[in-house]
Amino acid sequence: MNPQSESISSYLDELGADHGRKLKDIAITSIRSELSGMRYRPRVRDSKLKEKSGIFVTLKKLGELRGCIGFVYPTYEMWDATMKAAIHAAFSDPRFRPVQKRELEYLEIEISVLGPLEKIKSGNDRDLNILKIGNEGLMVVGQGSSGLLLPQVATELNLNAREFLEETCLKAGLLEDAWKDPYVDVYRFPAKIF
Question: pTM above the 0.85 mark?
């Protein structure tokens, strides 16, 4: 890992429960404001939330996935990425119809703050030994497509390292063993889940 990656990873460790509550508040308020046709811009004083970071917002309704969209790369400040991802997860996830006002009381919000991507693929089973199931997510890129699974997916589905890698390939629209293809790249990343 390069020094910049180490600083971002340690940055994730510095995020606490208060940061998670603030990000969740930003997410739900963004969704409520969008439904009401109001403009929302949170006041963010915490410098940690002003750092650029990859973010995914996962919405569940009564335990079932209702939307999940985010930003892999640290393009936006954390609070802004959370706001944008929440709105997209609620209204633009192509797998679901847009969230309705009547659903708000049933929504559960999960925020994943992503650390840096690290390329791990060498195309053999040794790749499986370095995966930290439950702590790291995966992204597969190749053949004109990509797929990403957050760390909690492996835990929720009780996947081992090989299964997690295969599911990520399938998410990318590739064959499950595409990770062995020399033209397919595999990345892992740490994430802090709130």
Answer: yes
